[in-house]
Amino acid sequence: MPYEEAPVDTQSLNLEIQNEDIFNNNFKSFLIDEKNYPPDLFPFKEWGLRELLLAQEYFNHDYKIAKKTWQSIQLNEELALLNPPSSVGIEIGRGDSNEEISKNLFGGGFNFTFETANKKLIRHELAFNESQKVLIAQELIFWEQRSLLIKEIINLAKNQSLIKLSRKEVKLKKSILDMEFKRLKVGFISKPDYDFLSINLSEFNNKLNFLQLNRQIILKNIANLVGVTYEKLNLIPFQLESIEEKLNIITKSFTSDEIVNMQDKAIKNNIDLRMNLSEYAIADSELKYEVAKQYPDLVFSPAYVYEFGNNVWKIGSSLILNDEDRNNIMIKKKSLDRENKLSAVKAAQFKLINELSIVKENFLNLNQQLILSKELIEQNEEYKKQLTQRFQKGFIDRMGYEKNLLDLIQYERNHKDAIYNLIEYGFTAETIMQYPIYSE
Q: Which residues contact 239 (CB under 8 A, 6 or more apart)?
């Protein structure tokens, strides 16, 4: 197999990056053929939770690197099944005696090793366990990238809801300030009081600007995590209200249906725990291999020699002996390594159970807070209707009406906080379990 050069051309790579397109046919085939995405919904009309996760699975660069690493490490399993190297040799010589039939001497032979104690199978078992560890490491990379994306999606939806509330507040404060300016002109309010309201409005404008700037930062993070350019991500609008609704529905469903089974799901699915288990399996295979090394391997050496006119066939055999003291030390070492890996499994499982017990209690408390917040919002909406009716009938003036509306926005903020506190804690539960709650 000849060597082939593969130079890195940064300009070509840049072109490849630019050609990574959410509208191309390769991505379409991936969605429809592999992920059963409805053909009539492609190309995407909007970014939803499902669309972002599917795009990440196809375009994310860390995903691609992890897959290549897995393909490479799998070849170790094939290597482990190969027999030890054999050797072939020839010998040529010439004598100076006149008493022999011929003065020439030549011959050839080869050596091959016969392994005892199933060493080849144990090596394959070890290679398989190591490749499984790499596979789990790949899953961990997928999981971490997915979790980071989910976190940014939650941040984006929360940021957008805060922007909407802030715009409503700024609009009301601006209207109230305009009315206060008229009162200032006729002497109903002092200049310091007016200036205080003006400064307060400026502060809220700054907060709104900060939220809008933060939105751009979050979108750039999402573009990096999906694996597409910021410009191409923005070609499709985000339906953040539907994303918020879906996140809320999924979290509530988890709260009511699945929280009781968190521990079982975590122990079965937690990738960090499975990584510890894979390391234990590797340590066990390494110990098994050291034990097998106690038994010597056999070397067979068949050969043919033409020796001074005589045809000679011969076969030799020998044993490959390992140092007994070294072997005993390695067995003790690998036994201790295996015990340490078992302790690591136990510690990881203990930590997981403790974290989940806290999550379960806090999750139920946050859900109760959301229920109470929803009741307050319903009361708030009823009061707002009554307030509007009183304003329309002339029982209160516009300034009083808008000041009351401004005060009521805090209840909306509190309700949004309750919604996202529960969603974010649902994300915490998902992160600990490493089991997808917020799926496609």
A: 46, 47, 48
